[in-house]
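Sequence and structure are kept together here, with a separate record for every protein. A complete record is shown below as an example:
=====
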Amino acid sequence: MDQLCRTYWRPLYAYVRGRRLARADAEDAVQEFFATALRRELFQRADAGEGKLRSFLLTAMKHHLIDRAAKEGAARRKPEGGWADIDFSQAEAEWLRVAESGAAPDAAYERQWAKALITQAMARLEARYAAEGKGEVFEALKGEALEETEAAGGATALSAGARRVAVHRLRKRFSEALRSVIADTLPGDGDVEAELRELAVALKEGKR
């Protein structure tokens, strides 16, 4: 549950800000949403056979905002102790960049969803390299491997040929990690390749 919250709060924040809630209200709305979801066991009642997790969460947030507007003026609830250490300042900065592009709330949500999955895949990949005692290799090559530009790579003791092999392996492992992360958000028969295509579209749209 903690991982789910950490993965999806940024996409939900981007969506809520896109609905023109002020920053403070958007922060509260996201906190309230997860607090309510936990209290009502929303995620336990979700049926994986009825669709994608991110679609389920976006629909649930839309309903939450409707309920919130109807109860305007009621005391705001926040999770006791908090479910995660959230720094909204970075999310707000990202939202301001999205707002300048004129992206719709749903599109902002999709882009943040894509970025969240990539971040999670990177974390898994970093842990894998660390477990193999190759953390320095990961740090040195991750930029080059994922951005496909040698300028982004750090210095290593590898020869040119060994470096190319290592970069190729890192790219392959990242692809595997990303597919694994995506599979975790889908029902058992979910189409990972289709989700990858949607992820690519979300990132491409965000760069326009």
In short: The chain has a mean pLDDT of 79. Residues 2-206 form one domain. The chain is about 70% helix and 0% strand.
